[in-house]
Amino acid sequence: MPRPEAEFVLHTLYKGQVQIKELVNSHTYKIFDRKNDRDWEVSPSATGLTDKMEKGAGLMVYAMSEAMKYMDRQFTNMSIKQMAETDFTFGQMFRDARAAHLNKSALGRRVGTASHEYIEELLKALVRSQKQHTQFIVPPSPTAIDLKADLKQSWLNIIDAYNFDKIETVDKYRQIVNKDIEVRSLLWQEALMLQRTCVSAREFFIAAVKAQAIKVWAVEQIVHSRKYFFSGRFDCILEFVKPFDWRGYTISKGIYFTDYKTSNPGRDYPMGIFPNHLPQLGLYDIAYCEEFPEISDRISGHLILGSSKQGLGFHPYVSTRRERNRNWGKALVPINEYMHQGDKELKGLNLYAST
């Protein structure tokens, strides 16, 4: 029995000549393009093409660090007696430790998704104010939960659920509270990181609007290149109608393909802006200008808006090397195809099994 097709959103580009099924919650695009013999063919995504680039050994150090912190918490929160009386095993602890960085990465992705949604809401509000010539009503930014009040209520709920008639129950309560602290801490971290990223971005856009320096051309735009066969969704195109200074950094007058990033800083990239972000913007530039060639000569460069989850603030970065970024993106397209062909050739190959 065939599997049902995943939920998707249908888009029409190139004046109806191209249809795209964008799978929900996925960087997956299926293309129907009769002229180029594409019959709902899966297209590489700009994000997928650039994510194949190496980000350095820092990610391995990060994973090891998260594993060590997890193990340290386990030994701090659990006594030898508790280890002996529960189903604790060192094997399971090591498996959980290996997954610790994945759990934290998932948390980071959730924060990134939620903050992107807030920026989208903010930019759409700005577009409405520009079109209607009305006051810019800034959406309220998310706020972190009150950790003290949340922990207090959670512990009261736990106390109400137990009858403390013997010391074993008290020991069990301590284990549950320790686990509850871990869960509540993650929830609080997520809410706090979301608040930090959104508040910082909000301040930037409010300042740009007050300076009468910014216009929004497009928000959350789907693009597809018929020539190079890739697709994607970029955050926005921003026009700065005059130079805009933000904390000592000046964005020159011009029109920019813009991407919003909440990446964690790396050892060599303390702003959390990585080399793969540049060809990603180059790919969006290629696809959009292929569909709308009349604006190509007006584009000034590529703008990355970095917002720190650690509370370091919000900082723009403009790459004026537009053609380099576009050519860089183009170069990744055949590399991706070679990798795909090599994977098909070797995946599952095991000549030892036949000897």
Features:
single chain; five-stranded mixed β-sheet; alpha+beta; 11 strands; four-stranded antiparallel β-sheet; 355 residues
Strand content: 15-25%
Report, as a whole number of angstroms, the end-to-end distance.
36 Å
In the sheet with the most strands, the strands line up as 5-6-9-10-11
Please provide the count of β strands: 11
Assembly context of the chains: single chain
The assigned structural class equals alpha+beta
> What form results from the Cα inertia axes?
globular
Main sheet summary: 5 strands, mixed
Helix content: 40-55%
Give the low-confidence spans. Answer: 56-67, 79-85, 97-108
Number of helices: 8
N-to-C SSE string, H for helix and E for strand = EEEEHHHHHHEEEEEHEEH
Mean pLDDT: 80
Output the radius of gyration: 25 Å
Quick recap:
The chain has helices at 46-51, 58-77, 80-85, 90-132, 147-160, 167-210, 277-291, 322-346; strands at 8-13, 18-23, 29-33, 38-43, 214-225, 230-240, 244-246, 249-251, 254-261, 299-307, 314-319. With 355 residues, it is of the alpha+beta class. Among the domains are: 1-43, no CATH class; 210-354, no CATH class.
What does this structure look like?
- With 355 residues, the protein is α+β, with helices and mostly antiparallel strands.
- Among the domains are: 1-43, no CATH class; 210-354, no CATH class.
- The chain is 49% helix and 21% strand.
- The protein is built from 8 helices and 11 strands.
- The chain has helices spanning 46-51, 58-77, 80-85, 90-132, 147-160, 167-210, 277-291, 322-346, and strands at residues 8-13, 18-23, 29-33, 38-43, 214-225, 230-240, 244-246, 249-251, 254-261, 299-307, 314-319.
- Strands 5-6-9-10-11 form a 5-stranded mixed sheet. It has a 4-stranded antiparallel sheet with strand order 1-2-3-4, with no helix packed on it.
- Helix 7 links the parallel strand 9 and strand 10.
- Helix 4 (90-132) runs parallel beside helix 6 (167-210) and helix 7 (277-291) crosses helix 8.
- The longest helix is centred in the middle third of the chain and has 44 residues, at 167-210.
- The radius of gyration is 25 Å and the shape is globular.
- The two termini are 36 Å apart.
